[in-house]
Amino acid sequence: MFTILPNVPRPRVVLLAVGFCLLISLNASVAWTSGPPADPPPAVPPDEDVGEPPLPPGDSPPVVGEFAAPGSLQDLNIQSSATFSGVLTDNLVLNDYLHRVREADRRDDRQARTSAASRADPASSADRSITDMGGMFGISGDSVFGRMQYSRGGRDTRDDQTGYRYDASGLFLGIDSRERDNLRVGGMAGARRMNAEFRGDRGETEIDSFRLGTYAAWEFVENAYIHGGVSGGAHRYRTERGDEPVESKHWGHDISGFAASGYGFALTESWTLTPEGSVQYIYLRERAYRDSDDTKVSRRTEDVLRAGTDLRLSYWSPGVAVLAYTGELLGGVAYDVSADHGEIWGRTANGDPFRARGPSPRRVTGVFGGSLGLVFDEDWSMDTRYRGRVGSDAYDHTVSVEFRRRF
Question: Residues 6 or more apart from 296 whose CB is under 8 A from it?
Answer without folding.
Answer: 44, 48, 50, 288, 289, 290, 346, 347
